[in-house]
Amino acid sequence: MIDMKKRLVVGSKGERDAKPWIEQVFGEVEFSDDNYANFDFHSRDNKVFVEHKERFCRYGQYDGLYFDKIKYTKFLELKKTDSSVRCFIVWTCRNGRYVWEFQESDTLEDNNTIVWEPYFQRNFDRGQGRLQDTDLINVMNEYIKPLTGYQL
Question: What is the pTM of this model?
């Protein structure tokens, strides 16, 4: 069985370690108050939200990188409240750090080019020590940018 307290300690350390380089790109950020928040960091004015994920693969090993759909749902809620809000996910992979800015549509302006797709993972142990079903978003690699040199 997975020790959730231990996972939270490890996750908190990862967030503390990530904060300096997150701030190099996104400016001064604060930690989210809730260990289970949808985003790890936010700007003081709550206009920028950043989620950090560590993946134990190389970028490009698969056709995209994924995250929990609940984070996308939260993004849509934030946009309804304030249309100027920007949300990002940063993945640390074995061969670098990569970023994607959330967007409201799953396609480009041509309404044809798929940027991300919903994905349903059935009976998968997501670190909770039990099998569970989860809705995910898989962002296609060609729309994910290297974090190095990324500018808002």
Answer: 0.86
